Amino acid sequence: MYLAKIYVTYKPSILDPQGEVIKAALHRLDFNTVEGVNQGKYFEIKLTAADEVAASELVKAFTTELLINHNTETYRFDLEEA
User: What's this model's pTM, rounded to 2 decimal places?
Assistant: First the structure.
């Protein structure tokens, strides 16, 4: 059993309007040292696989097929035995 922790964020070339709103709110609260905010999505998925390589391939497959928008988002993941 493996636990995949998947982090989805906008690609660097894509404007993050929610991140800009959060940054503006932080500045209004006098957190003026905040230079930028990127928001995204986070998933924890438990899966069964023969080994870590197979689990990694599964995570890549279902993430690219379902969890991200290829045009605007990118992802990374951590995999650990559960």
Answer: 0.87
Quick check: helix, strand or coil at residue 59?
A: helix
Tell the burial category of 19 from Cβ atoms under 10 Å away from its Cβ (0-12, 13-18, 19+).
middle
**Average pLDDT of span 24-29:** 98
| pLDDT of 36 | 95
What is residue 73's predicted lDDT score, i.e. its pLDDT? 97
